[in-house]
Design goal:
Layout: H1 11-25, H2 51-61, H3 67-79, H4 81-84, H5 89-98, H6 106-116, H7 120-123
Helix pairs in contact: 5-6
């Protein structure tokens, strides 16, 4: 018969784990803007614009973006299937660069670059 290995768990261990989880994820909501790079939106209409994610970007990065221009550019990207079917930030960035649309969609390009440079350590 197999012996089960058990580790006694006391309240201090559980409290420590809970505290570490709270600490690790306390700023997670500040990364809500990453959702803006989910270009896999089918049948987009303006009522589906991710406003909560966009507001997160405005709060945290308003000095780095032309906010009205970015909102317009994102709306165009979401609406045009030939663009939005790129799905991921790296595919979108490559598409804009290879088609020379990176100047026309400079806000979306900057957003993709920002999302792609977020360290995995930062997120986890």
């Amino acid at each position: 018969m197999e012996e089960l290995c058990t580790v006694p768990v006391n309240n201090n261990n559980v409290d420590n784990i809970l505290q570490q989880m709270k600490s690790r994820f306390q700023n997670f909501k500040e990364l809500k803007f990453v959702e803006l790079c989910n270009f896999n939106i089918s049948n987009y209409d303006s009522s589906k614009f991710p406003s909560e994610a966009f507001n997160s970007l405005k709060i945290n990065y308003r000095n780095f973006f032309d906010i009205p221009a970015l909102k317009y550019q994102l709306s165009v990207v979401y609406e045009i299937t030939e663009i939005s079917d790129k799905k991921t930030p790296i595919n979108m960035l490559n598409f804009f660069i290879t088609t020379s649309l990176n100047k026309s969609f400079c806000g979306v390009v900057k957003l993709c670059e920002l999302v792609l440079t977020i360290s995995a350590k930062c997120v986890s």
